[in-house]
Design goal:
Elements: E1 36-42, H1 49-56, E2 63-69, H2 76-82, E3 86-89, H3 94-104, E4 109-112, E5 117-118, H4 121-132, E6 139-146, H5 151-167, E7 176-179, H6 180-185, H7 196-207, E8 210-219, H8 222-227, H9 229-244, H10 249-252, H11 287-291, E9 293-300, H12 309-315, H13 317-335, E10 341-347, H14 352-359, E11 365-368, H15 374-386, E12 391-395, H16 404-413, E13 419-423, E14 429-434, H17 452-462, E15 467-469, H18 479-487, H19 496-503, H20 509-512
Parallel strand pairs: 1-2, 1-4, 2-3, 3-15, 6-8, 9-10, 9-12, 10-11, 13-15
Antiparallel strand pairs: 4-7, 5-8, 6-7, 12-14, 13-14
């Protein structure tokens, strides 16, 4: 099948949600709220991205367009902003970038596209038709096509159609249309260097039915041209075969070279975030850099009935307080010796001795939290810290994946971004960092709900802040969270084998086998609807 011709882009068009009204189901015109979020991962894609953005300007349904950039040094981010897209920074790596973009959006549907593809008008129409119709499936892909008339491109297209029909293999070049609910329930793209699209589709097919949007997404054959058509084709076929045979993506990575060497995140270059503290070859920042970084740790006195109230509903206040106490000490032990100055902001102000005895005083300073709601206390802490330091990062004490390396990564992002945020899988966040006090950022946030993250990110966007998004982590608020950690299925830094030592023995193991509240798909959390 030859794809529809695509006219070259001669101008940039601002992309914004279409006005309400017109035909179609009510869900596409409810107060003009976007129903589709489009996520495009980029790394130096200024030559290709504008054409795709021009294609997407033909969308009539309300939508959000987000570019998740992994550290471009060309005009990629400028081109995206000129076209009306929201740009966020993310750790380099296609899967990490797409996950970051998905967490930043709260639209019912997500569409993941590579930056070098094109969407002809017929594909735009088919996309809108597919979304307007009642769908039994919550995910779909497009047909695969390559740009150009060379016979070899038709040969590759035919091969992909055969693999798709025989083995159900689709690739990221074909786009992925998926409900936000399903995407979050399976945990997003896996943390692998290659084959993240194939692996995610394999997981999705195990929990639901795969559908096809009856139109093509047209991909650039640039890699085939750069590497040699037959060589690239043979390499791709061999890698897919090895992957299907069970070879780890990390073992396959060296054979799928990045298009540019020496770029951040490539196998031949160091990560854009740099090595973590204490890792082999890491360099401890000079004293002036450490003095300019302030880590703020928000902690509450672990009094039964005052902490982890949702967890206490299932376990009782004493057990919930014990878990919070153990978890908080574990988090502090993982960050206390990092390359930054650490200050614990505690509540209530009268609990100084108890807090110090609980968390230990090594490498820590202690200050009471300001009065008011959580927003008031966060704003006051940032204002105080940024009066003394260049950048500040705040964390809580209930996300076991937070460690010194992750905090240092956040500080690194703040060298360019105005705000860095680490999404929590329950719709909140486990980390936030700022370069300067930002009045209004913490006001009118629906604290303790699954809308904290989306509301905060929308506020940051309204304030014109340059946003960086870190990988999502899980915190412990409910019985389901706790059981996932005990079962070792959460996306956290401690190894599964160490989780029992973190939490200790508990009567909950007897409940785990009979619990029906855990998701069956990769142990993911129940998403916020």
């Amino acid at each position: 099948m030859t794809p529809d011709p695509i006219e070259p882009s001669s101008r940039r068009t601002r992309i914004s949600p279409a006005p309400t009204g017109g035909e179609g189901p009510d869900r596409f015109s409810s107060e003009g709220k976007p129903v589709l979020g489009i996520v495009i991962p980029t790394l130096d894609e200024a030559a290709h991205l504008p054409a795709l953005l021009q294609d997407l300007s033909g969308l009539s349904l309300p939508h959000e367009l987000l570019v998740a950039d992994g550290g471009s040094t060309d005009r990629t981010r400028c081109s995206a902003r000129e076209s009306g897209a929201w740009v966020v920074r993310a750790p380099c790596g296609r899967g990490s970038q797409m996950n970051a973009g998905a967490w930043a959006l709260d639209t019912p549907w997500l569409l993941f596209l590579h930056a070098d593809v094109r969407m002809p008008p017929s594909s735009i129409r088919s996309l809108e038709t597919w979304l307007r119709q009642a769908q039994e499936s919550e995910f779909a892909t497009f047909a695969f096509a390559l740009e150009g008339q060379h016979w070899f491109w038709r040969f590759i297209e035919a091969g992909q159609r055969t693999r798709e029909s025989l083995f159900g293999l689709a690739y990221g070049d074909q786009g992925l249309l998926i409900s936000r609910r399903l995407f979050r329930s399976v945990g997003g793209f896996p943390d692998v260097p290659v084959m993240e699209d194939v692996e995610l589709l394999r997981v999705l097919r195990s929990v639901g039915d795969w559908r096809r949007v009856q139109a093509s997404i047209v991909s650039s054959p640039r890699r085939y041209r750069e590497e040699g058509m037959w060589l690239a084709w043979l390499r791709n076929a061999l890698l897919i075969l090895l992957f299907q045979m069970g070879v780890s993506p990390r073992k396959l990575q060296p054979y799928y070279r990045p298009r540019r060497t020496g770029r951040p995140g490539s196998p031949s270059a160091p990560s854009d975030t740099g090595p973590g503290p204490g890792s082999n070859g890491s360099q401890v920042p000079p004293p002036d850099v450490i003095a300019g970084r302030r880590l703020l740790v928000f902690a509450k006195h672990p009094v039964p009935g005052k902490v982890k109230t949702r967890l206490a509903e299932a376990l009782g206040p004493e057990e919930a307080a014990r878990i919070y106490q153990t978890l908080g000490r574990s988090v502090l032990d993982q960050v206390r010796c990092g390359p930054f100055r650490s200050v614990v902001y505690f509540d209530p102000p009268t609990a100084t001795e108890d807090i110090t005895a609980w968390l230990g005083s090594e490498g820590l300073e202690f200050r009471p939290q300001a009065p008011g709601d959580l927003g008031d206390r966060l704003e006051a802490a940032f204002h105080e810290a940024l009066g003394e330091a260049d950048t500040a990062v705040v964390i809580g004490t209930d996300a076991p994946g937070v460690d010194a390396e992750g905090v240092e990564r956040a500080f690194h992002q703040l060298e360019e971004a105005d705000i860095v945020i680490g999404p929590a899988t329950d719709g909140g966040y486990y980390l936030m960092g700022l370069r300067s006090p930002t009045p209004g950022l913490f006001q009118e946030i629906p604290w303790s709900t699954c809308d904290v993250l989306s509301t905060t990110l929308n506020r940051a966007r309204e304030l014109g802040l340059d946003v960086a998004v870190l990988p999502a982590l899980e915190d412990v608020d409910t019985l389901e969270d706790y059981l996932r950690l005990r079962l070792g299925s959460a996306n956290v830094a401690p190894q599964p084998g160490n989780l029992r030592s973190v939490f200790g023995a508990s009567r909950l193991e007897a409940q785990a086998s009979s619990s029906h509240t855990l998701n069956s798909a990769r142990g993911g959390p129940a998403p916020c609807r």
